[in-house]
Automatic annotation (TrEMBL):
Protein family (similarity comment): Belongs to the homoserine dehydrogenase family.
Catalytic activity, as annotated: L-homoserine + NADP(+) = L-aspartate 4-semialdehyde + NADPH + H(+)
Organism of this sequence: Enterococcus dispar ATCC 51266
Name of the protein: Homoserine dehydrogenase
Annotated GO MF terms: homoserine dehydrogenase activity; NADP binding
Active site: K207 (proton donor)
């Protein structure tokens, strides 16, 4: 008789529904490659959630108590696609403590509580895979594990939040407001239920934390790096950047050198010739610089039901394959807890700087501050409506100097309406 692995699925939202469909559609292929049939046996939903139609169609049992899954000796693997921290964290720990393997797409949880989850998985000899937690459908984590073994990654950066990339594309191409483009991203199911984490760069930062573990084997913490999103970004800045030969993209970046790791999340000006500049809408792209391969880019859907679910089901298939081959359980990646961080005076870049001055006096003050801080700039726009708008591109400066300049403008009550780094090609 064919061997079966029974799955308990936690959550039946956008991704959970996709997992049901992808398992059903690929069941025969998975059986022929692994010799194992994957079967979603039970699905945990909230009391009052009406999921009877899909449960009848695909033949699984709906349950409301996590213990109906974790205490069921027939369940082999738990798939967590509920999102957020609790109760997902307790449910996953419960699953490991009951010797169930776990697949999760939960970047919030893995970025913040990865160490506890990974060590509990190891103590219980369980697999813990989470490919779908970064860049949805792009198989980036396993690629870093398997295909860079003979290489050394020095830098990983890219577009890892589908919602904000969709918004930036729609604002520019269809002249939509920030609010309208966000509403559309929510309607299309890309955004989180509360889109704060998307627009404030936090979702991208969670993914940067996970990418850093895989790229550099170091454990970046959320408090270790600067995180800025696109909240309230002005269409005028997107349009001016385009005229200057750039696309504005929310970039998550992590790089490693002898001086340590530097990471940040921020909207940046990406030169139009760079492959990341052409990534539109909810698509994601991860660009890797490494000593051996040089430059490589991985591109695909970063959000959405079926792409994300396909990544989850691929993790399930890898577990099935390893079980079939009676392989020893090993962690997805090994990373040490200590991180060596770069100092702000060791990191430098060029910046797009947009200022708002209330009156002529403030315009003069801007010139004084630029002289006093010895900041060489190129003026790329100056206009006056009720107030004055001045936009500059700076020379290469350290982050320490950037912060000093911002402080000087603040002190003079000149509003810095936007400051974005120009990504090096
Ligand atoms: N809200 C996330 C995004 C979903 O827009 O990228 C995928 O992680």
């Amino acid at each position: 008789m064919e061997k079966r692995l029974k799955i308990g699925l936690l959550g039946l939202g956008v991704v959970g529904t996709g997992v049901i469909k992808v398992v059903a559609q690929n069941s025969a292929k998975i059986l022929s490659t692994t010799g194992i049939k994957l079967e979603v046996a039970k699905v945990l939903v909230r009391v009052g959630e009406d999921k009877k139609t899909i449960a009848d169609e695909y033949g699984f049992t709906l349950v409301h108590d996590i213990n109906d899954i974790t205490s069921d000796p027939e369940i082999d693997i738990v798939v967590e696609v509920m999102g957020k921290i609790e109760p997902a964290k307790s449910f996953i720990l419960n699953a490991f403590n009951n010797k169930k393997h776990v697949v999760s797409a939960n970047k919030d949880l893995i970025a913040q509580y990865g160490n506890e989850l990974v060590s509990t998985a190891q103590q219980n000899d369980c697999y813990f895979y989470y490919e779908a937690s970064v860049a949805g459908g792009i198989p980036i984590l396993r690629t870093m594990v398997n295909s860079f073994l003979a290489d050394e990654i020095t830098e990983v950066f890219g577009i890892v939040n589908g919602t904000t990339n969709y918004m930036l594309t729609q604002m520019l191409e269809n002249h939509l407001s920030y609010e309208t483009s966000l509403k559309q991203a929510q309607e299309l199911g890309f955004a989180e239920s509360d889109p704060t984490n998307d627009v404030d760069g936090i979702d991208a930062a969670y993914k940067a934390v996970i990418l850093t573990r895989f790229a550099f084997k170091q454990d970046l913490k959320m408090q270790d790096f600067s995180i800025k999103g696109i909240r309230g970004i002005d269409l005028a800045d997107l349009e001016l950047a385009q005229q200057l030969g750039y696309e504005v993209k929310l970039i998550a970046q992590t790089k490693n050198s002898n001086n340590g790791v530097y990471a940040d999340v921020a909207p940046k000006l990406v030169p139009k010739f760079h492959p990341l500049a052409s990534i539109r809408n909810e698509l994601n792209g991860v660009f890797i610089k490494s000593l051996g391969i040089g430059e490589s880019m991985f591109y695909g859907p970063g959000a959405g039901s079926i792409p994300t679910a396909t990544s989850v089901v691929n993790d399930l298939t890898v577990i099935a394959q390893r079980i079939a081959e009676k392989r020893q359980v090993t962690p997805f990646t090994n990373y040490q807890e200590q991180i060596k961080l770069q100092k702000a005076n060791a990191v430098s870049g060029r910046f797009y700087l947009a200022l708002k001055a209330e009156n002529e006096e403030q315009v003069t003050k801007i010139a004084t501050i630029l002289a006093e801080t010895d900041l060489a700039v190129e003026l790329v726009e100056q206009n006056q409506t009720e107030t004055f708008r001045l936009v500059y591109l700076t020379q290469k400066i350290t982050l320490e100097k950037r912060d000093k300049v911002i402080k000087a403008f603040r002190k003079a009550e000149v509003e810095v309406t936007q400051m974005m780094e120009i990504l090096e090609g």
